[in-house]
Structure prediction request, 184 residues.
Amino acid sequence: MDSGAKILAKRYARAYMALDAKAHGAELETEAARKLEGLRKLFEAARPHMKALTHPAVNSEVRQLVLAKILGAANTGPAGAFADLLVRKGRFGLLEDIMQECLRINDNFCGVVRAEVYSRFPLSDGEVKRIEKMISCMTGKKVALRQVLAERVVGGFEIKIGDTLIDATVRGRLEAMKAGLLKG
Prediction:
């Protein structure tokens, strides 16, 4: 995605979520979760029809008819109105990026950090809780941890938090030891 599209996706997401400069509260958190769920359902329903909704040769009236058939009479909430706006503006192709940005905005608003732990085998509940506690202490936020089984990890685990990678694998420790021995 080019930088212009990324900026547009962020702007649309901020407008859709409407959480800027608002104090955190349970009611706002519930409303944000409802908006995210509506957007997720919309995306799942529209996924098979993305070409018709985004192709430049298809005129906007046909796109709106396709969207109306996808949504049906049941979905007239904020997600439906937002999808209609995206189709009218020719920006429906940004929907996936907008969804990711909405999720990031919601996480920041709710004080949640998303992390992934990569390991060869599933971790025990105790190990998962210990990792969540460690990440929570580091970030000062609640943690949404996702386990990923990865064959590249021979022993130990890797934790990815945003762009940060914490390498606690056997391979990482051996490489650190090798670098230390070569250095001094």
